[in-house]
Amino acid sequence: MLDTHVWIWMLEGVESELSAATVSVIEDAGGRAQVVVSAISVWELAMLEAKGRITLSRSIDEWVRAALTAPGLRLVDLAPEISLESTRLPGTPHGDPADRMIIAAARVLGGTIITCDDQILSYGAEGHVRVRNGRQVP
Questions:
Q1: Which of 23, 69, 105, 133 has the highest CB neighbour count under 10 A?
Q2: Is this model's pTM higher than 0.90 or not?
Q3: Contact 67, 7 (CB under 8 A)
Q4: pLDDT in tens, 11-56
């Protein structure tokens, strides 16, 4: 499962923010149609763009349409199980609602979050969700 910023970097061609090993893992997973993005990432992306915190290579509508048709990528809806799990996360989870949904989705689906977010990485280090540091070489 790609954290929102990783999804943006991959689709915007800013792969230099990630380790070569991480890019390879994502590309390999894409070849098996196993790259997952949470529907909350679409919302988070739109909020970042609306607030002027990011600028995309094309209009938000076009970007999302193209990004969701990327080969090997699957969008995960905000199913009731994921929404409920986001309110019941063990330990001290991230306070950001979008990140809580991404964490919950990974837990419900049994996936690994690829992220550079220190709070999600710390939460994963506590054993609550599987994570991969997108900047570290394994």
A1: 105
A2: yes
A3: yes
A4: 998 888 999 999 999 999 998 989 999 999 999 999 999 999 999 9
